[in-house]
Amino acid sequence: MKSAIGLTLALMLALAGTGAIGGPYRVPRTALGQPDLEGLWTSNSLSRLERPDIYPTVVISEAQARAVRPLPLIAPDATGQADSETYDEGLALARVRGQIRTAWIVDPPDGRLPFTPEGRARANKPPTFDGPETRTNQERCLMMPGVGPPLASSLYNNNLQILQTKDHVVVFLEMNHEARIIPIGRRPHDQVPRWMGDTIGWWEGDALVMETTNFAPAQSPRSSPLIRTYLSPNAVITERLERVSPGEILYSYTVVDPPNYTRPWRGEMPLKRTKGPIYEYACHEGNYSLPNILAGARAQERVAASAPRTDANPH
Whole-model pTM? Predict the structure, then answer.
């Protein structure tokens, strides 16, 4: 009887440590004593960076979620069909702290980017067809908008892997097989601009805090079917990664960029535990879109050059 009671008490204490019976969740530690963020995680959902017009608020009720059908990840084409390469994965709007979220942006409260007029013009400036350098980074397989920082879920490849050592944390992203190698310890930022900026990290309690600035100027325009932002090279982004349950990390961030936004803006995104795997990302190997886009533009120029002029004065 005593041994059975002892086993029961031990089990209750173990469950309390995981929050399974109502106690506070205790973040597990690595062998180095750091909060354990390691593993495979995903941000897959139908929530978007900005709140779509079909939803009245960033946080909606269960009834509102049932009443409004979420937008497809890609808008229907001319035939009324969504992109055939976008698969139904049984996705739903994300939940953060039990709340149904229609957008990652939570401040401003309307879930919209607080652009300055100049920032909006920069974000909405269409690329030209003069050459490959004027096309988007996504078309050129250089840098996808969602890899961040800050992270923003894309149409696909929303998985990532976190690895920890004593002095570094590595966030390996499935999208474009990018890897952020984050040194741990406060130090001055490297002044050399780089893709994904220069990041320093430190631990605050159970959270990993990361501060990033000095982005490569070519990364400033970030556009895709789900994302349209613009960040200046000197923008400062502060991110936090914190385990909130055995199967979830809360990712939150604040963006400060006065040339493009009237105020700092903040977002939250749940990263859910996933079994993976993370697949190889091959872009350049099969990228026919860029030569085809430019070839199409040259063909249009030839047609325009050979067309009879209608503005000539017959007299």
Answer: 0.84
